[in-house]
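TICKET #2291
ISSUE: user wants both folds in one file
ATTACHMENT 1:
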Amino acid sequence: MARRLLALALSLLAAIALTACGEDKEETFKREYRPVNAKILALGRDVGRSVTGASGKSDRQIQQEFAALARRTGALRKDLEALDPPDDLAGDRKDLVEAMGDARDALREIERAAGEGDPQAARRATIQLVAASQDLRSQRRDLARATGGRR
């Protein structure tokens, strides 16, 4: 009987320890995600300003501006990838990472088109960016909702 009680007590302690670790991991992820979320929001505002303000700029200015935005998007994507989400948020984090990759690629295409002075390619890349941005916005909102981040 004493062995059974000891085994039961050890099992309960192990279960409590595992539960506590899960809560810590979730809280850690939420705390670490919030500043990344804020940076993604700021990036979105900057991309929007760059797209709407592109008509008055030279190809070289557009190329430089969108190259910087693509680098920033790539860096934020890496920051997001470095976070260790709990199992229930891993899929949402993965979806956001992929959406950020699509947005980064579209920004690079705009950069390339501007560097080549190719307005048709720039138009296609801008359409690609709009689609990628909509997906990114949706994925970011889902993760922000789950973590208590700003939507």
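ATTACHMENT 2:
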Amino acid sequence: MANEEVKSEQEPPEEVKEVETEETAAETKEPVQAEEIEEEIEIVEEKFYTVNLRDLWTAPKDKRAPKAVRTLREFVKRHMKVDNVKVSNEINQEIWARSIQKPPRKLKIRAVKDKEGQVIVFPAKAA
């Protein structure tokens, strides 16, 4: 009986092995980069803009970054003549980089329209 107890202690149950493999598989997967998403989009139209956000600074401090996102969406809707605008994670991080109270005064963006009429806003790449 002592030998049987030792064997059961050495080998973990099968359920534990499955959990370990799922965790290691999740760790090896890399997050999807924005560049890969851009390559998948069929670009119909692409435009570069510099969006002036100076009017945000008249808003209360607690509402400046959310207003910057709304202003950016309105700007792109007006200039690209679409209703569906998505802001990429990189642009969102640029707006929120200095917290809610101090968004940037200007943003250089790249607006990409796909074949479905949806526009996605990315940061303009430096040449």
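RESOLUTION: both attachments delivered.
EXTRA DETAIL ON ATTACHMENT 2: The chain has one domain: 34-123.
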